[in-house]
Fold these 4 entries.
Entry 1:
Amino acid sequence: MTKDIKKHKIETPKERQNRHKAMEAIKVLNTIKEDFTQHPKAMNYFYDLYEKVHCKHESLHDDKAKVGTMCIQVPSEVIYALDAVPVRLCNGFYTDDEIGSDLLPAKSCPLVKATVGQFASQNFTDKPDVIISPTTCDQKAKSGAIIEDMGYSVYDMEFPRTKESAESREYWRRSVRKFTKELSLDLNKKLTKKKLKEAIKKVGYAQYLYHQLNSLRKNSKSPILGKDMFLVTNAFFFDKIDNWMEAVKLLLKECEQRVKDEVNAAHKRSPRIVYTGSPPIFPNLKIPLLIEQSDAIIVADETCSSNRMFNDMVSVDEWFVNDMVDSVADRYLKGCTCPIFTKNNDRIRRIIDLVKDYKAEGVVYQAFAGCQVYEMEQRSVLMAMEKEKIPILYLESDYSPSHLGQLTTRIEAFVESLKNRRRKQK
Ligand code: SF4
Ligand code: SF4
């Protein structure tokens, strides 16, 4: 009798959602591992990490206060210095996107819907103790208020919409100072000179390791595919920073050897792509996977779930707490190329530089359906690429597993056009 009851135990909604998320994660991990050969052995750390967190729901940060961050603009150096861990809440699960769809307008950004959906269903592996919501894009700002209404503790961190002026710099510095003070009170931890200096150095070293690894993709035979690089950088959202750095060091060593051995992760004729636009976040790696399944290789990216997280180091003149906090603030404003700014020439400059430095032959620009700023900014990016004679493909997508056929056709046609272009140039 007891056995029968156990066998027919009814799944709770939370268990069902977790099962669906685990299935989503496994499907993508299997594609990443099995549809491609030649991945570096050191990638196994990252494959196992995603399985542990997203399929087995094993917590990584039981012993620490967790500060949930709604956007990359929240300075992780300050969080580490206060003995807490940053956990980025930007979410790539379609299961959560569907839950969020019941709470937000149908035309909202899937990333925002998925983030709100996760709060509604409370299916966290590492539940945040406090949530920091920078007022970057409108949808993020409004969703912070919705999450607060659900009973979570949300702190709004004011962010300027222009970047070049002295006023916006000062405004943002004040905002970071206030955030530092409030978080210190909330966590009941004092920010010391020693701890902040250590945290700046640690995050700086993580940035350095990333750039070392990333620069290997400049080789004509890239040792690593873009889909793997997205996994590495996305893991920075939630992994223990020391573990992440150790794993990247091993990967770097292996990739350096692969460069010496002339191992090519792609085919000889695979066109080289720079990826930009709305951020690919695991398991929504739909577009990067379609690109690499279509015989192209992503050699660089300009997105906030990857390369942009490691932009610009903190540059400190005086190692006093207040100076360090201001220097941290500067790093985050200077490095931001999100289209929420009125003008965003830095982003265009960076894409062009990436194309040149990584010898890319084309750009793929993805905008999430419902993300007005990325949709609007495509016009200026397309014009700039046209001027530089850089082929670009603009795609609109969401988290839904449908419409794959249409996207595949467009990506394959673009990859073919790049191959033809190369033939003609010879
Ligand atoms: S797209 Fe912009 S607003 Fe959204 S998480 Fe990235 S940096 Fe933040
Ligand atoms: S993709 Fe667009 S709407 Fe979504 S978080 Fe980024 S800027 Fe905001």
Entry 2:
Amino acid sequence: MLSILRSFRAPVLALATSLVIACSSSTPSTPATGTEPTSDAGATADPTDTPDGSTSGTMHTVNVSDFAYEPAKLKIAVGDTVRWVWTDGTHTVTEGTNCTKKAGGFDSARHTAAFTYEHTFDAAGTFDYFCDYREHCTMMGQVGRVEVAP
Ligand SMILES: [Cu+2]
């Protein structure tokens, strides 16, 4: 059992590490694909997946650390992608308000440092999210917002 876990974890960690390295470059125009766990199964067209990148939305990075998202408030355009990068602690990126999950909203699940989670915003609107460790949200105020302009 342990060996199975090890063999599974190693490539995942390597992938996460390489993503962070790639993310640290200054150009946000070459998003990695396939890093989103499960929550975007309903998305049809991901503009960041275009081969030449010419019509890609912009990639925005938000750091996820102990009890904060940085920047906590982000203004983007429809078609842009937000990449959350875990830098410290164990946290989630969970869509919802008042520390309550929105049904069908995006959700990274719980992760630790070096994990990255991406979500492409295909519609205009205001999207609030929070850390789904209850006390992080309710006591530490770990919340964020993405405003998507049409
Ligand atoms: Cu948290």
Entry 3:
Amino acid sequence: MVFTYKCIDALSPYCPCYLAETQSCIVCSVLQGKDTCDCNWQGFCVYQEYIWNGRKKKNFRKALEVKISEKKVINENLAIFKVMLPLPASSRDFSQPGTFVFLKSLDSPSYFELPLCVMNANEDENSLIFAVQVIGPKTKSLVQENRGFLLRGPYFNGVLGLKHIKAAKGKNCLLIGRGIGQASLVLIAKALIRGENEIAALLDPGAINYNLAEDYLKKLNVAIKFFEKEYLVLGDIVLNLIKERNIEMIYSGGSDIQHDLVKSIIIQSSRKIDLVISNNALMCCGEGVCGSCAVTLGSEKIKFCKAQLENWGA
Ligand code: FES
């Protein structure tokens, strides 16, 4: 299978980036050091932007100091934070589905930075909500913080198949969230509601023992069902919902095992259903520079902090 992809940052204020300067652009063959132009045209020429910008990168994401205005310790595994963005930063720039940031507590060294999904963005108060599951030293240091964080972002590639969310209009959609994967459901639900889509959600508390997205989704009038920790049960529930609600798009927020299961159920249903999944690649820099998110697909190494697969789930 040949995989085609677009760069999530193309057409954003962050293109061209460091990869153009180092002849490593993921989409522009000229900015990869080749002689010929051979890109997967996105309606936008990265090379032209690079020339117009004086052969250098545009804006780069700087770390902002953000204040914690609310902290809820839900249980020993989970804390939820509300942080206030300092002007001129705007929470609107963090409200696209799949947006994530890198966070660290104020006194930790830079290698404590951790990628974290934006759970909700409130434009009236210029605030963001994050949920932190305690897993290791980085997450422990975040949940111990009471004053503020250093925040670097926004980064946009937290979900794969974003085009299906952006294009969805009047569709029947199903959101599936397990454990901390539920944090990504809220911005997706908001975007789908703007497109006048019908939404149902399936939630499992998973390892965090808490349904993070429940209150937010209820306020958005999303019909919610719960599933237990057994994936066999999930398979049956999803298949029934696909038939009952004539589901046309599914978002899976959770592990790769969950994504594979959902994909197999879609195949089993024999229906044309768009699949969107949470991006579980290991992120370290978010800029396409370190290579920690690279996955070999076919003959290519694809950097998943930048690449939106075009034919995922097709
Ligand atoms: S996270 Fe560093 S290259 Fe993708």
Entry 4:
Amino acid sequence: MSDDLGTVKEFRRRRKVTWDRAKLWLAATACGIIGMALLADVDSNSSPERFGASIFFFIIAGISSVRVIYIVQANYRCPVCDAIPTDGGILLGSSVGYDEGIAVNPKQCSGCGARLS
Ligand SMILES: [Zn+2]
């Protein structure tokens, strides 16, 4: 039981570190995506300023999203087995499938089953 509490406490600490390091990069990613959406109609006939701005927002979104991925990969891990907690969900849409992503608030580790919250 005390090991469980230690694992939960350490995972919470790691999750907080991840959030503290990633939040500004997430904001930059959002700004880049919004900027790209606002300039979605840019083509070869657009002004150089609009074209440059669309490239700028594209680069901001790309660099910041890669940085977020790096921060999550480096910090958001199970204290017991070092796996990134994931969860899956059934996808319904044009096709039916199963997709696995990073669990934002996992109750237990998907790798070893350790209690994380
Ligand atoms: Zn684990």
